[in-house]
Every structure is written in structure tokens, then in C-alpha cells.
Amino acid sequence: MPPKSKKKDADVSDDKFMRAARFGRVKNDLKMGFVGLPNVGKSTLTNLLAGACHAEAANYPFCTIDPNMVQAIVPDQKFKYLASTFKPPSVVPAVLKIVDIAGLIKGASEGAGLGNAFLSHIAAVDGIFHLVRAFESDEIVHVDDSVDPIRDLETIQSELCLKDKDTLSKVVDREKDRIRKEKQIARSSDPPLGETFQSAYDKCKELIDSNTPVQTYEDFSMGEVDVIREMGLITTKPQIYVVNMSKKSFLRKGNKWLPKIQEWVNSHGGGQIIPMSCEFEQDLMDLGEDKEAQKAYIQECEDEVKKMGFSGPGFAVKSVIPRIIRSGRTALCLQSFYTAGPKEVRAWTIMKGTLAPQAAGVIHTDFERGFIKVEVANFDDFKALHKGDASMAKVKEAGKYRQEGKTYVMQEGDIVVFMHNVTASKKK
Q: What is the pTM (predicted TM-score) of this model?
């Protein structure tokens, strides 16, 4: 049995995404990766995410970085509002980088199939979209000859945990070597492990032995988190479970597998589950920018839902692509701030908790080096006060335009101007 977490109150549980990303890199260019068996829809969904159409970014290139990495534009109503207000010639939205990782098969942790390459690709991403297949198709062959999402979940989770078990088997020797070198003692000696290292190791081993991702456990101390971060375990990465269903199952909001998948996820540490249908999303995407055709297709689907006997807000038909993108970004603890003016409106990506000088550095390193202050307007204040003007004048008049210093923690949706002063170093 994995170690039990202490009960959390409702307010603390809202911080689950920050806890999930605590083992990761502190950077702004983090990536999500699709993990799953072959023929579950990874490449199709990756392409759908890359081609997601957002009117506010019509002039932004939907580029493929390399054969298996794409950039998905983050759906953002605040950014859209600023772009429509300032109407600049250049608009640059926030993006989420997504990697389509080759299909895994049983035995990958021991090198089967693309085993080692597959696992190295997972190690290179910062979060995981765990895609499972919950649809039947005579045209798309399942690698195990039958559709069983629970078996597939077990296969993937087992391979990830087996790889972590192998990694964990080496960290003790590595830590002892570090201690010997630090204390300059003989290689033949057997130094005791530190208390924090030992407790972190024991908790990770118990979780991995029970096929439970390390990142789902809530009660690691900060010292243990620091130790685990250096271990390089795959299951420390945030995971989102994406269930690829048939169009019919998606429209009726369920099939026989969803309750079983929910039960399995809950028994393996919990996590977010997003039901979707590549079949539905592809049909919608194939209509391109034709808004009338899209509206007609959605209406056709809603009529089909009514014929099945379902009705109400819970059965509204809409694309899940925006939700997947936003969920991936949330899992990585990323957020946006904006710069807005007559020449450009841009969304800049930072991690939650970033201080103003470091946010300025995302724009240019000189901005961080010579940071003086940041002028900030809250988006909601701007929207309520600007009265159609593409400027901050009304916001300033209302006393809602403020100046912050080096200790200011950036908030989601801040509209900013950074003040900086960098002088060239004098020649000696």
C-alpha cells in the first residue's frame, strides 16, 4: 500500500496543480507529451491541437517545431479582448508545446519496441497527457487485439513505474558516492544516508511498488521534494488522463468504460480525466474557418443527442480541444501576462509565483538586469474602465493603475509596462 496522505481542507486542495508540478523544472518553455499505446489517437490529437483555430491569432503561424513537436495556441478570452481593443498589426498569443511520443508497448522499460527512446522522450517533457482508447473500430487495429482501457492504463503505468523502479535502484549508490566525495572518505566505506533522503526514498519506493505515480502523493516535505527532484523519476511529472471515445459515446457523454476508468484513476492516486472524441473533433476541424458549416454541424450533433433521449445543459455539444490545452497549461503551473499597445498585443508565458523582475526577463534579459519597477493594470479593471479607448488613461484616472517593485508576484492577466535602466559597463 502506498503511504497515506493527510486529509486536506477544501482551500488547500485547490492547490493540487502546484503540488503536481513541484518536482519539475522552473522554466517558461515547459512541454506536455502524449503517452499511450500505438493506435490510440496520439498523432491525430496532436495534429488537432496544433491546428486549433483561434480568430484572435489568425496571423500567427501554426508551426510544427519538428516531426513530433507542435505548438498549440492557448485559448484566452482576455488576450482576444485586448487584441480587438488595440487592433495592432501584430498579435502574439501564448502557446503550449506538445510532443507526440511514439507508442509504448509492454516491455518498454526493458527495451522492447522503441522502449529506451520512448522513455527518454518522456523524460524530456514536463507533463504527460495519458491517452487511452475507449472506442471500437474494425479499421484501427488495437495492438493487443481488443479494446480494454483498464488493461492499457495498467500497461502504461506499469512500464513507467518499472522504469522508475530501475532508476530508484541506482540513486542510493549515487547518494553514497556523493557523501563519500563530500566527506572525503574511502570508497570502501558505507556512509549512512541522511534522514531526509531516506524518508524520500522510502516513500517513493512504496508508491512505485504499488504502481502509483509519485506526483499524486501530497505530503512530501520541501526537503523531500528537493531530494526527489534530483532523482529523475518519470512518475513525478503531472498527468492528465485523456479518454478517446467514439463520436456517439462523446455526444451521449459516456460509455461503459468511463466509470471503470474513473475508479482505476482514483485507486492510483487520482487525477483529472478528460473524455473526448478525435472522430468528432476531426469532423469539426475539417470544416475549417466556415463558421456557418461549423454551426450547422454542431446543430446536427445536438439533434442527434436529442434523438438518443438526452437533453439539458450537460449535453451541450462543443469542442474539448480548448479544455485540453488549458488543462495542460494549468498542470504545468503556467500563466500569462500581457503587453498591449498600438504596435503589438502579446501574451507572455511565466510560471505561477514568478516575481516581476523575472517576468521582465522573459521579454528581454536587460529588462530583468536593469529592473526598476513595473506599471500594472488588472485586466478586469481595464475592461470595466477603458470605455472603448485603446489606452490606460481611464484606468489611471480611476486610480487603478499602480506601480510595483521587485517583490511583486505576477498575477494571471496582468497588463504591464516594465521600467528598466541598463547602462553599459565603464571601460577600465
A: 0.85
